[in-house]
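Researcher: I've been going back and forth with a colleague about how Mitochondrial enolase superfamily member 1 might be arranged in three dimensions. Neither of us has a model we trust, so I'd like an independent prediction. The organism is Grus japonensis, in case that matters for your notes. Sequence below.
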Amino acid sequence: MWLQGHDLIAITEAWWDSSHDWNAVMDGYVLFRKDRPARRGGGVALYVREQLECIELLVGVDEERVKSLWVRIKGQANMGDTVVDVYYRPPDQEEEVDEAFYRQLEVASRSQALVLVEDFNHPDICWNDNTARHAQSRRFLQSIDDNFLTQVVEEPKRTGMLLDFVVTNKGLVGHVKAGGSLGCSDHEMVEFRILCGRSRADIKDNKKGFFKYISSKRKTRENVDPLLDEVGALVMEDTEKAELLNAAFASVFTAKARPQETQTLEVREKVWRKEDLPLVEEDQVREHLGKISNHKSMGPDWMHPQVLRELADVIAVPLSIIFERSWRTGEVPEDWRKASVTLVFKKGKKEDPGNYRPVSLTSIPGKVMEQLILAVISKHVEGKNIIRNS
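Model: Here is an independent structure prediction for Mitochondrial enolase superfamily member 1. You can compare it with whatever you and your colleague have in mind.
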């Protein structure tokens, strides 16, 4: 394996303990390992070529219960970092430990480039149709789907049973092949190529990633300083500051809305019937869901844009029904009228509530409905020549 020149070498069921310290080292590689001294077998190891900058990660969730090895490898040139995990799951592992690993996976899956090299011991999984006989195996499949990961090893091993998995983000791993064995192991080796982490050069397509990077490099964090209320008293508590800012925003909105008198043009009265209203077609909703950017922030309903985009074919029908009902009744679902509000400091004194402006994050399904309404209004305005050239 050393002669092959692999950048990474992952080993499961290493059967190592402290007595192997002297012969586990391999020239040209940095070794990470997690042994299972209280039990034979089950240990894992990862060799990383020493030219690659790497560090072991502590995901901070159930570290003692789950012997999972997480390592972050720094991307070279303009490439992003890659997180690699090596994990061995004993066949008789309790469900509680499985759930502990899934919690770790949920934290680690926030990485844009994630590769899991695992011996999960789930031989009953049929990867062709993504089904399994046993409940723990089905729970594993659910966790993979929930974190938008995919299993890329297709060739059967160990008398047709697939035990060793490579699980990763879609499109990150290629050139997967199995064959040969390491020492006297009855497992076949799996070779694959990581197609590099996401490039940091695509800033034009992901401006949010750029500003997130800038924010991570700042030495200070923007928090709301103590504020002065209307009598000049200093407000320190977060709840009181939120109420003070809310009152300031409401007063500005009301003040701007009052002075202008509503003016209406004399038009011929027309009674609109329900059948005159445009229909909300399922295909329209599916198209809009497919165009949602994964980099958008969630609203107060905690519906992530990637979930909506991935499930566009499934939820297009129920959403079109909700949109249609809202359109015809003039009623908006309560969740769409809520917003998560964050603050942006403008200029001046930071203790003045009037020097902040709110940025509202609303429900993404509600935004899709707004786009459908905008399309209908724009079509009507253009078709009727309502706005004249000036």
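Researcher: What would you highlight for our discussion?
Model: I'd start with this: The longest strand covers residues 173-181. After that, consider the following. Helices lie at 95-108, 135-146, 207-217, 238-257, 282-290, 305-310, 312-329, 364-383.
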